[in-house]
Design a protein that fits this description.
This protein is mainly alpha-helical. It has helices spanning 2-18, 26-35, 48-60, 64-67, 69-88, 93-105, 107-112, 122-138, 144-158, 162-174, 185-207, 211-222, 230-240, 246-258, 266-281, 293-310, 318-332, 334-337, 343-350, 371-374, 379-390, 408-417, 432-435, 453-456, 493-497; strands spanning 401-405, 427-428, 445-449, 460-468, 481-488.
Length: 505
């Protein structure tokens, strides 16, 4: 485990060094804004990450390295957690090392360590659930199901997709000899524990008429996301966690389902099958299944180590070959998820790749860089042009002059960068910003972003075009127009206009 810890430390240092190379990511503004408005839920996420973001900023500040410290730490500790899982399954030195390498260089987990988001803790929580399942079976102690329930409940407070894994575990238990577990009170108490941990967010969703469900329905109705076919979806799974490492996690699936030494944990093999089918059939994004693979890497590494040991010396060369191949490919693909290169050099690098990088939303196709990089550019320019408009507002009018942005990225950037310029908090009809309301403005003076003069003149008599945010060739959001609008034509900003500004998609 000392070597495993060294790998984890190297991964952590890599993230700390490169995590301020580009800029703040669109979703990071959302988590920071939500962290400034602590509550038990948000339209697009549960409350755990905004809460941790709030604590992190209070302790470490809000520099890029500071807000990405928690993701870097969680992603690096995942290496140790996965190797410990391999040891829990009876793994020896090679299987622990192979597991650590697979997890350390898997593109999705590398990406998780470089951006603040709900993906950051998700693999740790899924794997934590799997570890409690193993402990309950291994030690024949059903009290571990309480631990499973607590971690699953925390997972639901972090990202709802862990429910698919929980469903998979339940179905897996029913399909195997472990179904006897349901005759024991502890698994039901574990379910109660999960429910109680999740209950505050559940009540919040009920109070606001299930905002997350409304959001998902709106996204699907709009057809925003790319829908993968069965072959492409499987191909994306290989790409997400390193295609060269594919044989390891595939071996893990087979070992959990069919290999006798891992027969007690067969329910976990079925949990993968169920999670895969549910996410695919629900047209989930390609990375939604990524949290399950550390468990499969651990099982696969243990199985491969055993199978190679049984072959004695004839296949001994495969051990170092497999490990080095995964490591080298992982290092080669590092620029895809870590900004080690400038944008210009990154585009040149992508031309050397054998496949095109995936696009999860149709709108991302217009950007020069992949979305996870493109959405780290352009925000200062948007906030800067908004500040130009704000400085044109007479001091006597500022108390009743609000700023309205079209999406949570623009609004979050104004909240973050505009604070230094003395700008008020932004409003938006997008996501949770709409629930935070119209801020008691009359609407007689409003700075509006990313709209057209023709549309705005329907609501205000005096619409002044201020300018457009400075161009940034790498940004997904390019040259956003800014207007100052005065002389309202409507009766009430909060009553006549705000209810119609809801934009959840």
């Amino acid at each position: 485990m000392a070597i495993v810890w060294a790998i984890a430390l190297a991964k952590f240092m890599l993230h700390v060094y490169f995590n301020n190379r580009y800029g703040y990511f669109r979703d990071e503004f959302d988590y920071m804004s939500c962290g400034d408005h602590l509550q038990w839920g948000y339209v697009d996420q549960p409350p755990l990450i905004p809460f941790l973001t709030h604590l992190s900023r209070a302790v470490l500040g809000d520099s890029l390295r500071a807000i990405r410290f928690l993701p870097a730490l969680a992603s690096s500790l995942l290496v140790v957690q996965a190797a410990a899982t391999a040891r829990q399954l009876g793994g020896r030195f090679y299987s622990l090392l192979l597991t650590a390498i697979c997890v350390a260089v898997a593109p999705q987990y590398v990406s998780n360590g470089g951006l603040l988001g709900t993906n950051a803790l998700e693999p740790n929580l899924w794997l934590g659930c799997a570890q409690f399942v193993m402990l309950a079976i291994q030690k024949d102690d059903p009290r571990y199901w309480i631990g499973f329930g607590i971690v699953a409940g925390l997972g639901m407070e972090e990202k709802y997709t862990i429910a698919t894994f929980g469903l998979g575990v339940v179905i897996g238990l029913l399909l195997t000899e472990q179904r006897r577990t349901f005759f024991n009170k502890w698994i039901w108490l574990g379910g109660v524990a999960a429910f109680l941990v999740f209950l505050p967010n559940l009540l919040w969703n009920i109070q606001y008429d299930w905002p997350f469900v409304q959001l998902i329905r709106a996204i699907r109705a709009e057809g925003r996301d790319v829908v993968w076919g069965p072959f492409d979806f499987f191909l994306q799974q290989l790409m997400e966690v390193n295609p060269v490492a594919g044989p390891v996690w595939i071996a893990g699936v087979l070992a959990l389902l069919f290999w006798r030494p891992l027969k007690p944990y067969r329910a976990l093999g079925w949990s993968y099958i169920v999670s895969y089918l549910v996410i695919y059939l629900q047209h989930g994004k390609n990375y939604y299944l990524a949290p399950v693979y550390p468990m499969l890497f651990a099982a696969g590494a243990v199985a491969l180590d055993s199978w190679l040991a049984e072959s004695r010396s004839s296949l001994a060369w495969l051990r170092p070959t497999i490990a080095w191949s995964i490591l080298v490919n992982g290092i080669y693909s590092l620029p895809i998820t870590v900004p080690v290169l400038s944008p210009e050099h990154f585009l040149a690098y992508t031309k050397t790749l054998p496949v095109k990088l995936p696009i999860n939303e149709h709108s991302h196709a217009r950007a020069a860089l992949p979305q996870w990089y493109a959405d780290q550019f352009g925000w200062k320019e948007i906030a800067g042009e908004t500040a130009v408009a704000w400085n044109r507002i007479p001091a006597s009018e500022r108390a009743d002059c609000g700023i309205f942005a079209q999406d949570y990225g623009q609004a979050g950037a104004i909240d973050f960068f505009g604070r230094r310029e003395g700008l008020p908090g932004a409003m938006s009809g997008d996501r949770t910003y709409w629930l935070w309301g119209p801020h008691n403005y009359s609407g007689n003076c409003m700075i509006v972003l990313d709209d057209s003069k023709e549309v705005l003149e329907r609501y205000w008599t005096d619409v002044e075009y201020v300018g457009t945010s400075a161009p940034n060739e790498w940004a997904l959001e390019q040259q956003i127009p800014v207007f100052i609008c005065k002389g309202k034509k409507f009766e009430s900003w909060s009553g006549s206009v705000w209810p119609h500004l809801k934009r959840w998609r």
